Amino acid sequence: MAASLEQTIEQKQHNWFSLLLNSQAFWVTIAMLLACIFLSYSTDAFATSKNLYNITRNVTFTAIIALGTTMVIITGGIDLSVGSVLCLCSMVLAVTMHAGFGIYTGIAAAVLTALVVGAFNGILVAYLDFPPFVVTLGMLSVARSLAMVLSNNTVVFEFGPDHDKLLALGGGSTFGIANPVIYMVVLALLTGFVLRWTRFGRYLYAIGGNEQAATLTGVPVRRIKVAVYMISALSAGIAGIVQTGWLGAVTTNIGAGMELQVIAAAVIGGANLAGGVGTAYGALVGSALIEVIRNSLGLLGINAFWQGTFIGSCIIIAVAFDRMRRTR
Amino acid sequence: MPVLELSSISKHFGAIQALNDISLAIEPGEVVGLMGDNGAGKSTLVKMIAGNFLPTHGSMRMDGREVVLHRPVEARRHGIEIVHQDLALCNNLTAAANVFLGREMRKGLGPVSILDYGGMYRRAGQLFRDLKSETRPRDLIRQMSGGQRQAVAIARTMLADAKLVLMDEPTAAISVRQVAEVLNHIRHLRDQGIAVVLISHRMPDVFSVADRIIVLRRGRKVADKRVERSSPEEVTGLITGAIEIA
User: Cβ of B129 and A10 within 8 Å?
Assistant: First the structure.
């Protein structure tokens, strides 16, 4: 009896293979690889180094924000303001540098803006019990409006003395890899590490799983919620800074609609809007699948109007798979 | 020396007198069944002991020293653990993660400290072994039976070197076989010298595991006697008011 109890306790019900088969991100990766194989045979343009360079770089802006959004979604929250925060931070950076300040001052101002916006969202959600949907919906409107006020709704394309540094930051490449891709990989590794190996990451899952239980066991739920909205806004701010360098110009409509694309990426990658589930890798692969779909429609000569249908179907199929796995 | 001693505790909520002049003492390793009808004051009493609010009058001593508990964390610091009725578990996390929730084991990795998965799995496995529960530390709570969930919630209290464990209706919503499991967990706590206060409506459970029964009615203590000197019939009478006082 003692031995059998021992064995039962020690038994691992899951090996790495069954865990893999159970992971939505794994199946999305397979789907994406199949799409890539299909596209490299059916079109000449897909598997060219130039096209792959473009895809990987285009993925980054969605993916960087999707990392932050995934963390918010894991806690059971939502952040609708990221597209507008991206715009506001880009504009703060652009206006600061245009006024003659250096690139570091500009970046510091943009990062600070993001953190203030995130803290505002987080405090309202965590301490005043506002629904995150409403708070961030409000911020979606406020942040873009502030960007318009800041720039008087003009396009900024001259970035003062450090103009070239900024363009190199976002548009350059290192060892043949676009700089934004390097930032994305570093941030993804960092996010993955935090989620899997730190107490902070563990608490995010606990809050999303059962907020009441987390509170009762002494998890500092409110402080962590504020932190997670700050991280989300910061991810949008970083994406904004990099995108400004890449585009070489900032308008007040960059990042419009980005929030929905980012949430789509997180959900396709396995994050559950009910909270408690999600991974950094999922955020990456979800963003990548969306970009591959968009890219392939162009290459296959399909009307771009179909793009939304394909991406929307992906979201629904991903969630359908998730439901099937759970009921089985 | 009693691990917990309450002297003339009263609690008002506005005009409502939830607890009225309650005194009791609990010895280490003693299992006390706390019984009473809905609204008799059981939850109020337990919540007060767990530090959710202060009594209006009266004092509370632990190991002979007077304590004033303003918040639940302070109660926990004094060795009072509570197993909530809904168990307060996260379904999306593993058994080990739930046992250690809020008190994760960590190890250094250069300048940062990371979660010690191996250590937590081992320690949680030990606790389940001590409880004689077939619970795997790596399983998600979502996949577990009611009895295993109870084991996880109880293991959490054992982690902390608790002196007193308060259990709120631990057998209310589980199968007969699992009830036996939970009662065994309670005996294990007792054998380690931990005092247990068991709130329950289920007469057979209380009589099989408790050393002593305290009955509350309308905020007053109407009975405090050893189980062998009482009977389910008497306790039922005391709860409903058919018997005035014992």
Answer: no
State which fold the B4-89+145-240 domain adopts: Rossmann fold (3.40.50)
CB contact under 8 A, B91 and A9: no
**Window 270-299 of A, Cβ < 8 Å to B:** 276-277
Contacts of B93 in chain A (CB under 8 A): 202, 205-206, 209
Parallel/antiparallel/unpaired status of strands B220-226 and B80-83: unpaired
Please name the member of A197, A205, A212 whose beta carbon is closest to the beta carbon of B88. Answer: A212
User: At residue B212, what is the residue type?
Assistant: R
B68 contacts B54 by C-beta, under 8 angstroms: yes
**Dist. CA A146–CA A178, nearest whole Å:** 31
Contacts of A203 (CB under 8 A, 6+ apart): A214, A219, A220, A221, A224
Q: Which of A8, A205, A216 sits opposite B88 (nearest CB)?
A: A216
Which amino acid belongs to residue B175?
Answer: S
Give dist(CA A183, CA B140) in Å, integer: 34
A47-322 is classed in which CATH architecture?
A: Orthogonal Bundle (1.10)
Interface test with B, best of A6, A210, A223 (most B CBs within 10 A): A210
Q: Enter the tokens of residue B129.
A: 């072994």
Task: State if pTM tops 0.80.
Answer: yes
Give A16: exposed, middle or buried? Use CB within 10 Å, 0-12, 13-18, 19+. exposed
Give the residue among A212, A275, A227, A28 at the shortest CA–CA distance from A125. Answer: A227
User: In a structure prediction context, what are the per-residue pLDDT tens digits for chain B, which is 246 residues long?
Assistant: 889 999 998 998 888 888 989 999 999 999 999 998 888 888 889 888 988 888 999 999 998 889 898 888 888 888 898 888 777 899 999 999 999 998 888 888 878 889 999 999 999 998 888 877 888 999 899 888 888 888 898 888 888 778 999 998 877 767 777 788 888 889 988 998 899 999 988 888 899 999 999 999 888 888 898 988 888 888 888 888 888 777
* DSSP-based three-state secondary structure for A161: helix
Nearest to B92 among A12, A219, A277 (CB): A277
3-state secondary structure of B187: helix
Min Cα separation A202/chain B (Å): 8
Interface with chain B: mutation pick from A15, A198, A216, A223, highest number of B CBs within 10 Å: A216
Q: Where are the domains of chain B?
A: 4-89+145-240
ipTM for this prediction: 0.82
Q: Where are the beta strands (DSSP E) in chain A?
A: 173-174, 177-178
- How far A195 CA lies from chain B's nearest CA (Å)? 10
Q: Given A11, A216, A219, which is nearest B84 (Cβ)?
A: A216
